[in-house]
Design goal:
Number of domains: 3
Number of helices: 16
Helix content: 25-40%
Bound molecules: calcium ion
Structural class: alpha/beta
Strand order of the largest sheet: 17-18-16-15-19-20-21
Distance between the termini: 56 Å
Number of strands: 21
Shape: globular
Mean pLDDT: 93
Radius of gyration: 25 Å
Largest sheet: 7 strands, parallel
């Protein structure tokens, strides 16, 4: 146990002049490290200790990056907290290194497979779920009522279908739907409906009078299907058919007739979904979204580096990995543009960051709006320090593509999917991109989960993993405890991913059915 161990600090780079205290519960004054450094005061676990005297104005280095400047003289052995640091200015978006790093192509990782649901469009699902798309929040209560009935009365008859989910959201009416940025929430909802876990069985519940009409949400051609009978009956092309239950339709007399319509539509889709079978597919069919939430100073030491190692394994296996959270990578933009596979990819990255800078500016906030009280309590002084620990989730592979918020993936490899760092919005946008497996690291602890896709949660500290033993799927704190290497935990995560993707294992969030709401990113005005 770490608490019983000798005083231990973790330094991320040989050039760093601060390190974080690893011991559970922190260390008190007088604690002496192996190299003779003596603590001058109490330093909580995960917080920084000055390894040398830091004169006023000097750069405080972690990850070999200046995370701030000392506001006064800080003697060696002192607690270096955020009140002693001046945050460095944001890196401009001009003159960045563009696709300058050309790492040798790593050896392909072959022979790894999982059992997935192959779709007509070539994508692969990890779960078999009936999703009911909604055009507007007005129908949410009705859809939820119907979903409960479907679960109770229909789902038991279709053993190959895992779940029924209403894609509820707060968009659809009372919004400036023609504003340029409205494209983001609209395409997000469209692309979520097409997520690989839903098997192409799109059904829509609409109110009738809303701004986001079904044909606008899912225009002809976005889905191939649907109801062969009506296609044959009326001679319409398959593309023109969208399965919509409209609550304001004159056919509906009374609430129960609406519920009956939804259940009848659901029955047809459940029948089709029930014919799906898992088949052996290569690991390259994984589409993994990585993100973090409730971060602490260990996030960038244990869990995120392990995820980064696993990201490299996945990319070598030909899979897709998305990293996101723009405000948490913005301070490492030069690392990212230099890792872009081409100058065009680097430019796309800068375009997304510039768009987000302008978005924040419009709201009169800056990047200091990121970092929460919990982040600071966990030892993260500011967004620069948080960003350096966040970026490592992306591993070391070249970045081969960029997605704007709500866009759907068109290629494999390591992708920067631009999203806010908000856990719910990031997860929602990664679902829209086509994510079929989610990896989430946390230091402070969050019970986050999604109904649409399995979420594997990785704890950064053993203390959290012990207390939340039935919520955390992997304990990366063993890295800080000296019980496992980054590589060990990275491989463990890789194998767990294949098991979870195959349905052989459930994550804790799935076990307890912990489902956070979808949250659409709407940067456009509401009316
Ligand atoms: Ca997040």
């Amino acid at each position: 146990m770490a608490s019983a161990r000798a005083p231990l600090y973790i330094r991320m780079h040989a050039d760093d002049n601060v390190a974080i205290v690893a011991n559970d519960g922190g260390l008190g004054p007088g604690a002496t490290f192996a190299d003779g450094l003596v603590l001058r005061e109490k330093v909580p676990q995960g917080h920084k200790v000055a390894l040398v005297d830091l004169p006023q104005g000097s750069a405080v280095l972690r990850y070999k990056v200046s995370i701030g400047f000392a506001l006064k003289d800080i003697p060696a052995g002192s607690w270096v907290h955020e009140r002693l640091l001046e945050m460095p200015a944001a890196r401009g978006l001009e003159g960045l290194p563009m696709a300058t790093v050309k790492p040798p192509a790593p050896a392909p990782l072959e022979g790894y497979t999982f059992e997935g649901f192959r779709n007509a469009d070539g994508s692969v699902g990890t779960r078999n779920i009936l999703a009911i798309t909604t055009t507007v929040q007005c129908v949410a209560g009705v859809v939820e009522f119907a979903v409960q009935r479907i679960k109770a009365e229909l789902l038991p008859k279709f053993p190959n279908v895992d779940d029924v989910v209403g894609l509820e959201h707060t968009y659809g009416c009372g919004v400036a739907i023609d504003a340029p940025d409205a494209i983001i929430p609209i395409r997000t909802l469209r692309n979520i409906s097409l997520n690989p876990n839903f098997g192409g069985e799109v059904m829509v519940v609409s109110l009738g009078c809303e701004k986001l009409q079904p044909e606008r949400l899912l225009p002809p051609g976005t889905i191939q299907i649907v109801d062969e009978r009506s296609v044959a009956d009326v001679g319409l092309s398959a593309e023109a058919q969208l399965d919509v239950v409209c609550l304001q339709s004159e056919n509906h007399v009374g609430f129960m007739s609406m519920i009956d319509s939804i259940m009848q539509a659901a029955l047809l889709h459940l029948e089709k979904l029930n014919t799906r079978r898992r088949e052996t597919v290569p690991a390259s069919e994984l589409v993994v979204g990585v993100q973090c939430g409730g971060s602490d100073a260990f996030s960038g030491v244990t869990a995120n580096p392990a995820v980064g190692f696993c990201t490299d394994l996945l990319v070598r296996a030909g899979a897709t990995v998305m990293f996101s959270e723009t405000t948490e990578v913005r301070d490492g933009i030069d690392q990212l543009t230099s890792r872009a596979s081409t100058p065009e990819v680097a430019e796309a990255m800068i375009r997304e960051m510039a768009w987000y800078d302008a978005y924040l500016q419009k709201g009169q906030v800056d990047r200091s709006a990121n970092t929460t009280p919990g982040n600071k309590k966990g030892g993260l002084s500011n967004i620069v320090e948080k960003a350096m620990g966040s970026i490592v989730k992306s591993g070391s592979a070249p970045i081969s593509g960029v997605l704007a918020p709500g866009e759907k993936l068109k290629q494999k490899g390591l992708i920067y999917a631009a999203t806010p760092a908000s856990d719910f919005i990031c997860g929602t946008l990664q679902l829209a991109a086509g994510m079929n497996l989610h990896v989430f690291t946390t230091g402070r602890g969050t019970p986050y989960g999604l109904a649409e896709c399995p979420v594997i949660k990785v704890a950064t500290r053993s203390d959290l993993a012990r207390r939340w033993h039935d919520l955390m799927d992997i304990n990366a704190g063993r890295i800080a405890d000296g019980q496992a290497s980054i590589e060990d935990v990275g491989w463990e995560l890789f194998h767990l991913m294949l098991d979870v993707a195959s349905g052989r294992k459930k994550t804790w969030a799935e076990h307890w059915k912990l489902h956070n709401a979808l949250v659409l990113f709407n940067p456009a005005p509401v009316t």
